[in-house]
Amino acid sequence: MRIRHLILSTLFLLCGLSAWASSVHLSVQSGRGKREIGVGDLFYISYEVTDIEDAPDRPTNVPGAKILYFERTGQTSRFSSVNGRTTQSFSYTYTLTLKAVKEGSFSYGPVSVGGVKSNSVNYSIGAEAGNSQQATPGSSQSAAPDASSSKSEGPRFIGKGDGNLFLKADVSRTSAYEQEALVYTVKLYTTYDAIKFIGATAAPKFEGFVVEESKDVSTSLNYETYNGKTYATAIIARYIIFPQMQGQLKVLGNTYTVSVDEREYYHDPLWGNLSVPKPLQLNVTPNDLSINVKPLPSPVPANFSGGVGQFNISSELPSQNFLSNQAASVIYTVSGTGNLKYVKLPDLNALYPPQLEVYSPTPEVNANVGRTNVSGTARFDYSFMPLEAGTFSIPKVELVYFNPLTGKYETSTAKGYTINVGKGKGSEKSQTRGMLAFRPELLKVGDNLSLSHKPWITSFGYWLFFIIPVLLVIGASVYYSAYLKANADLLAVKSRKASKVARLRLKKAALCMRKKEVDKFYDEMLAALWGYLSDKLKMPTSELTRQNVSDKLSESGIPEAKTNDLIALIDDCEFAKYAPAATKADMNPVYEHGVNVINSLEEAFKQVKSDKNEK
User: Residue 284 class from Cβ within 10 Å (0-12 exposed, 13-18 middle, 19+ buried)?
Assistant: First the structure.
């Protein structure tokens, strides 16, 4: 019996020593719980690095796939004590997230980490799966687990969850007024042991909304019972959204990649029941939402400011004594919660006395995106100039806004002032008094007069002074008529100038790239691309979708390859905007790609127009 125990202890020691030797192991996992990888699917290559402190380099090329991001997603440590000797081992898990782009059989590896080479892994990419094999965003159903799949594959997962992990989207109100602030949240529910990574692989689609992203999300897990089952929960995204039109508006959930630890249990003859953590990556999409947006009640007041929320206006005048022809200022401050950025004050030139000339400012908005609303202040610094001396009244200024809590239009008033204006420099009007006496020496008459002198009025040069202005007026009229005709169709004008406007936006993106402002760079790139399409295709930005763009470009005769290149660039920019910072540092290729795409599309539109003219 002692011999048996001695043999078993020796075997365990040898296994432990061999397991703790430095090593690098690669493995391939298909995304969404599929056994096979199809074109367009996400899949993963995991690096298991044991007893090596060095981190693997981020790969630059993977056959048949596009690299999305590369992150460390797990860490484990092991200790062993045999005959008083304690040994320690550790391992790190790195996950390479990929998108399949080409059919075929491929091989990846080996890679080297800290001088240790890994194995190579083989994988096959099949044809793109049909709609019936993929989860449709917004669908409420999930694919059932494949009964024939082995346990080592982990949970089969498509779409909303497999009961162990899912996302749930909620909005504060499903019926609201135009411009009313709504809170859109995405909450994670999980029963897995540990959440190691959460990353958005696409942006949510807010159709017909202005969006402000809130940073008020969960920093730790809470526990909640849902449908009779206890889950660890966390709010992973929160947005304040403002509907811009009435009707049924939709919010389409975006896709997240979540890395978790799954427990695998097994029975050991010596030690009994044991469990080990197994890294698992899931792709999950929250449910879609539909919001009924009501128009603001009629009649809308004539002096409505456009504000929807709760607001207050105040005024500030540093002094009430001024001099004429010298600039002064009065400050109006609007504070509160709601669509603060869209509040406008009445036309003060119509309210102020004519002796005060008022200059409209650009408001300074200091808004904070909070947990349930957007709050802050908007400062309007109006400059005015008294034109005359005297006593004048600066009237009260009313701010009319709509309060969705009461369902009524409400008014906040800023106090008025009485000011005293004294005479300033340049305020006196000089007058010339008396009569000018005629002085003959001012007009001296010479002796060179001739009887043959012809008046200048009879010369051709004299009449040119009348002919030339008449011709200029006629030419200007013809030009102006042609200009009005060419610019009568505002959408056509925007379409002609789409390329110019897009290049101006790309210049802003280039400036952000030089300043290392990554998030602003991708915002400007997306604004340039979507704005170009909106102007060129004569469609509002809110109605643009990838399918609409593809259909419109196809109807315009644009080659499919150019359309696909454009859609791919938009996808890259939207993904990079929400991807981790380490994956979007290199902005120059994206910028050059954007310039080439717009130039290519512009040339294609010109070629199509040229072909039509030839016919």
Answer: buried
